[in-house]
Specification:
The chain is an alpha/beta fold and 407 residues long. The protein has 15 helices and 14 strands. The longest helix is centred in the N-terminal third of the chain and has 22 residues.
């Protein structure tokens, strides 16, 4: 098939690891022609350009800024993406007839782009549902469910579901949520297609781990808990700070947090004031260095704001699993990521408004995380449920046979 993949993620290296690049390579390696349309933000001062990267056609469309900018600028840029993408597709892919339009959320404003390609090429469409907007913004009090903004984006959300021939959700909780709030969606249109990655062996020896810890100034005589990723409102940073406060006198655990985002300064201010000797904060390191750092730690951490009513399922879980780390998740009660971790036997979970629960889980993790059985369960679970080949097969089965596929 000829497949066009639409995303707002800037894909600058098709060989880099990630849930989308891994899937794109899997399609390519199975004989499909893949065309990617992604943005290049105005801040980088680069024009729209088409490049070929290891057999994959990547069309980078110049758009306004959508990251590390004001909400107003982000909103305007997001609204303009659809027209910019359509114009670029007309110009650069006018002579290409696509069989499948593959796309993910965010954003939810791709419906017109998808309609254009479907009508022009008689193509099928498949949505990888990674984000349920605008409800997630309502949960975090960014705007009201009675506001004009909400009503506009809610309409766009339902349009996206309608134009999608198939919808792949990250977990069963996501399927249940979408169907409950969108009962008009046919049952055979929606199914589970979880986040997935290309399984690579990045588990390090004890000697290698010691060298990694030395490089980043981490102790060798403590259990290292690591969090890597966005530090914004969805992560519930005030709760993270309360959790770190509860561990100030824990001489058996050390916490390293790597990330950036709108709430980063709150963590930075707390650490400057309290100066705990078992916490380290880093704003940025390269993807390769980050993967190596994670592999040198003992426990991966996931945080989600307790106010969420939508079932988020962060993809950073897979990075921890790939590095052989058990996972401590602190989330709202609506996501099923904690259930997956606990039932899979490779980690611990508590609600993200329960500091005492976090203290208890840290104690359990310190005691149990050196058990090889935890790591074996984690690796087995990753290969069975979250391999990119499984995601690929679900998409292909749905498109070629017209059926749904449950994991």
């Amino acid at each position: 098939m000829k497949i066009i993949f639409l995303t707002i993620i800037n894909i600058d290296n098709i060989n880099s690891g990630g849930i989308y690049t891994d899937l794109i390579r899997c399609f390519r390696e199975n004989g499909h022609d893949v065309y990617v349309v992604c943005p290049t933000e105005r801040r980088y001062k680069k024009p729209t350009q088409l490049v070929v990267d290891n057999g994959v056609n990547i069309l980078r469309v110049r758009i306004g800024n959508i990251q590390k900018c004001s909400m107003i600028e982000k909103g305007i840029s997001t609204l303009l993406i659809k027209r910019l993408f359509i114009n670029a597709i007309k110009k650069y892919f006018n002579d290409v007839q696509f069989d499948l339009v593959l796309y993910s959320t965010p954003p939810i404003t791709f419906s017109n782009v998808i309609k254009y390609i479907k009508k022009r090429d008689n193509a099928k469409s498949y949505l990888l549902l990674k984000d349920i907007f605008p409800q997630n913004a309502v949960d975090l009090n960014m705007f009201s469910s009675k506001s004009v903004i909400y009503k506009y984006f809610r309409r766009k959300e339902t349009e996206l579901y309608k134009v999608s021939d198939k919808i792949g959700c990250m977990s069963q909780a996501n399927v249940d949520y979408v169907l409950k709030h969108n009962p008009e969606i046919p049952l055979n249109k929606i199914h589970v297609n979880p986040n997935s990655i290309e399984a690579r062996d990045i588990v390090y020896s004890q000697k290698d781990k010691q060298e990694i810890r030395m490089k980043y100034g981490l102790p060798n005589d403590k259990i290292i808990f690591v969090y890597g990723g966005n530090l914004g409102k969805p992560q519930g940073v005030p709760f993270i700070i309360d959790c770190l406060k509860s561990q100030q006198n824990n001489d058996k655990a050390f916490f390293i947090i790597v990330g950036s985002g709108t709430e980063y300064s709150k963590l930075e201010a707390y650490l400057k004031e309290a100066m705990p000797d078992n916490v380290k904060l880093m704003s940025y390191i390269s993807k390769d260095d980050y993967d190596m750092l994670v592999a040198g730690c003992d426990v991966g951490m996931i945080f989600l704001d307790h106010r969420f009513t939508i079932p988020n399922f962060p993809s950073r879980l897979l990075g921890y699993m790939q590095a052989g780390l058990p996972v401590l998740a602190c989330t709202d009660p609506n996501t099923d990521i904690g259930k997956v971790i606990v039932d899979g036997g490779f980690g611990w979970w508590c609600e993200s408004n329960d500091v005492n629960g976090f203290e208890l889980m840290v104690k359990k993790a310190v005691k149990e995380c050196m058990d090889d059985e935890i790591h074996n369960k984690e690796t087995t679970f990753l290969l069975k449920h979250y391999s990119v080949e499984r995601c690929f097969e679900i998409v292909i089965n749905c498109m070629e046979n017209g059926g749904s596929h449950n994991v």
